[in-house]
Amino acid sequence: MLVLLMGTGCIELPDTPPLDKKVLHLEQNWTADEREEFYHISQGTVLMKADWFLALEQPEIKFVGTVGMLRDDDYMARFGFLPDEKSARNPQGLPVGLAVTDVVLPVEGERQTVVGLTCAACHTGQLEYGDTAVRIDGGGAQIDVTKFQEALGASLMLTAKTPTRFRRFADRVLGANVGPSERQALKQEVTKVLRRGVQESLANRSKQLYDGRPGGFGRTDALAKIGNYVFGTELDDANLDHGGAPVKFPQLWDSPWFDWSQYNGSISQPMVRNIGEALGVRAQVNLDPRSERFLDSTVDIEGLHRIENLLAGGAPLQGLQSPRWPKDVFGELVETRVAQGAELYRSHCQKCHLPPLQSPQIWESENWIGNDAPSMTAGLQPPKQRRRYLNLNSVNLGAIGTDPGQATQFFQRYVKTNRLVLPSLTSGPWNRGRWEDRDWYKNVEPTREMEYPETVLPAGVALQRLTVAVAERYYDKQDFNEDQRELYNGYRNPAASSRLEYRPRPLNGVWASPPYLHNGSVRTIFQLLSPLEERDRVFYTGTRQYDPRHLGFKNIRFRGAFRYDTSIEGNHNTGHLFDAQPLGDGVIGPLLQVDERYQLIEFLKSLGPAGVPPATFLVNDD
Question: Is the overall model pTM greater than 0.90, yes or no?
Fold first, then answer.
């Protein structure tokens, strides 16, 4: 359940940042209630039992004074979590991105109340300037997930190994008046969880999965960690593979209307995408075909569907929208520079990033693709309900020249599925969002000896089959009809791809999502528009102090900051260059004079969300 820190006292964290800044919520087409729902709606991930989490102390030893609680706002803020008030949706007063929910563990069949990470943990940003904290809903968070998991493990280990600490823990979980037998049972349960965590940690360390490639604040190697947890920890340690390409948490506005998602355009269907994400942050699934609960999971399908609806809205680009530049906080726009920057955008940016979403041009048919297009159907029968999606461009790795790690590692990864025999979607009995033959996932007799084929699949294909199967299992148990399945699947087939390319997105709100490039290797927009030698080779992350002139976080070295070294593979800040060299091999435009860079920055500040689709735009061609 936990990736544990083997020992204590070596988690270096920043000091608690100021928590008294005035939080400014910008207009992003959400009500306050929708925002709060997004902050704490479960996606079915499992960190640990909720009463344990609330009872744990911080993983430090004091000989004088008391040790604070792990869940305290000032401690959680050191990992980058944003504090939140108590409410009906958050009765425990947990930070943004944590949820308490009831799950049925799919292996044991035991019902538990657990705490887990939500979508908002990684996708709620904040920019701080003066005494104001500008909240960016759907923006990239600045949390360090790895250090948080290490602290959880260290805290639980200290609790188990220190009698006085365990006594306080047991008093909080069980009550002060319970007898020795109940306390001993709790101790055994804690020890069992620790043992699992130690085994996982040792397996990860033996293969040096992430050595030398930590993500730090605001980044994680998402695709590698999904594959390692699902196909390694949960299935077979032989599938554990080195992860060396952390990517930044992307902004979410408009993304439900993109034809393909992920930086490398590897996933199309939202349910497949969201189940994979939930599994990657430790939702549990039963992968034993001998079990009557085979393919049951803690994934909250209803929660994922609700999250997608919040983000998507009821019509194209009408859900969560990008924030507008807050002039009262960051300063007024210079309109002459906006106009000059618009010309530069049309000349150098639009061919990849599409026309600005606020322009009428975005609604032209050439910018959209139907869910019945061959690239969207993946060789399967298209959904009955017709929908159109924003047709993002793709740029091959050689042309853009940015760090290739995220795309190449996913492209090259294969996994052994062995006992997890899942049928192909293209050659199996698949029809309009369901398998016609259900026998493939009915459990076999537990005592029956099974010979499983040595099945080796590309990681993307294996993940596609598994996430579809998890969804199908839930749909079948709920007795969903074909229309309900299409609705929950976002009217898209579960297409998957491993592409050696990256897919640039529209740039509205780009000012609110530093740092830049898919791996967060360029600190500011100004540096992104500059030659390579003018970019920071080393900088520090962990602060939210914002630079409104250059559009990015400030470079501040402080205790516990993450040292971002762009010379490390996976961290390279090459590519997407404007330079006085021939186009290609990472050069995408001519050298921009300093004033031209500021003109383009001024235009990017001015970009707003899409308007209401015009009557001429075909929203639904049923």
Answer: yes
